[in-house]
Amino acid sequence: MEGLDKRAPFTAAGGIIPPEFRNIKTPCYILDEKALIKNAKLLGKVAKETGCKMLLAQKAFSNYDCYRFFEPYLAGTEASGLFEARLGAEEMPGKEVHVFCAGYRADEFEELLHYADHIVFNSPSQLLRFGLMAKKAGKSVGLRINPECSTQEGHAIYDPCAPGSRMGTTRAQWDEAILKNPELLDLLDGIHFHTLCEQDSDDLEKTLASVKKKFGDLVSRMKWINFGGGHHITRPGYDIERLKRCIQMAKEEWNVEVYLEPGEAWALNAGFLLTSVLDVLKNAETQLAIVDASAACHMPDVLEMPYRPPLLGADEREEGITVRLGGPTCLSGDVIGDYKFGQLPKYGDLLMFGDMAIYTTCKNNTFNGMPLPDIWLRQADNTMVQLTDFDYTDFKGRLGRRR
Ligand SMILES: *Cc1c(COP(=O)(O)O)cnc(C)c1O
């Protein structure tokens, strides 16, 4: 956008754009070193006080230039497959690499063994197919269980315990498998569950009760248990004391090592998406503005989850003009949300969305030929470092062969 230096330092919604953000090209993501370190310290404190091990689930946040902020506080990374496992091994050398994938592939498995330390299988049949190979390579082998304990309402897309779920092994599935293949039990070093999403420790406590009831006998034969992710530990108000009791309970009840692998919690409220207003319009009673960031491309969870991201200045406001913000793509539903503004925004105005470090930079896309927003880091001393330099080749390169 032209005239970067002429932009107002405050947004029409209210709130002041930090000076170091004012002169960079939009749209862009800004990761915040201080906030990342604050989260990491809190997670590290829980690990230290309980003796559990914290992993970073990379699918939520994998901007590896920032891994150094987490390194003192975590035991390793968690990956959803080969590429994330490789990234964890490359970018956190010397730390543990854990993998969970609902379906491993024979043509990748050997390479995966090269990077991973812990391999978690989703089903007895995957365990049967690959377990021995992992074991022979000296890996720690786990099974993801389904404790059949739904703790979230209305979010079937995020509920691995929903009826008919493909995620994890139910007790009935396990009992049936072990009748046919008793040798499966000897392959297992650990039990893994992942059933939470942005939840507090009361839901973890409920889940653990179900794990104990359905799988307690199995867990007590294991070396470790992994509580998965979805623990919103760094959210203000999260009940950390109860989490600590849960970890303690597992250690005492089953004499196992406890792993947690949050994703969101590491980078919660630790990033921004800066965008500029491209147009302001009105359709009957609806006041609209088009911005240069797209929900569909740059914040896909806004549509998938769905949720409305915080906007600087708008959320503290009770009175004001309601403006519906949407992206420049052709998708009618590319709407970020309705926000209260102190005054009508105008062309060129800067707007700043909060909590934009998670499930964004690792999940965006170039639908409509939208450019990928560059990623910046605001360092602890408020200086800005540009981490990426995306351009047309990032769009074209994933669509075909000719350069
Ligand atoms: C998604 C996921 C995580 C991380 O979840 P968050 O909600 O980001 O904390 C951890 N483990 C597994 C197996 C996952 O699928």
From TrEMBL:
Database matches in SUPFAM superfamilies: Alanine racemase C-terminal domain-like, PLP-binding barrel
Keyword annotations of the record: Decarboxylase, Lyase, Pyridoxal phosphate, Spermidine biosynthesis
GO MF annotations, alphabetized: diaminopimelate decarboxylase activity
Cofactor entry: pyridoxal 5'-phosphate
InterPro entries given in the database record: Ala_racemase/Decarboxylase_C, De-COase2_C, Nsp_de-COase, PLP-binding_barrel
Species this protein is from: Blautia segnis
Binding site for substrate: 264, 301
Superkingdom assignment: Bacteria
GO biological process terms, semicolon-separated: lysine biosynthetic process via diaminopimelate; nor-spermidine biosynthetic process; spermidine biosynthetic process
This protein's name: Carboxynorspermidine decarboxylase
Boundaries of every Orn/DAP/Arg decarboxylase 2 C-terminal domain copy: 117-356
